[in-house]
Design brief:
By secondary structure, the chain is an alpha/beta fold. The chain is built from 4 helices and 4 strands; from the N terminus they run βαβαβααβ.
Length: 140
Amino acid sequence: MIFYFVRHGKAKGNEAKDPLTEEGIQQAKQLASFLNTKIVDQEIQLITSPFCRAFQTAEEIGKTMNLDIKKEVLLVERNLGNTSDLSDEERLRRIKEQFEHPEMSFPGGESNLDVTLRVKKFLDQPYLNNGSVKIIVSTD
């Protein structure tokens, strides 16, 4: 089984509804052309995060390669939680600390362990085990 993990093209922001910029659309088209020459005569599944910038990138890939798109909610970004009362320096210090202690999280957010378990749940999805090449489009 072959996986291609793809990050979305350049976007107007980092919120779930932020679209690609014109440059990001061009990046997605270039990527689609590249993948279309790289993956030949194989069954392909195109799976994307539901975030707008990832989905738009997947749309360009799907158009070029004539593929249907599956949105997968398990591919959303980590919910960092409430960090608004922290300085940038303190936020960064605590994020680094969370890599040493993966069960830690900010209030209302996901821990690194939560994200790891969510990604494992995605990788255990039965539809991924059909032998096809997978193109996975996500955010960071």
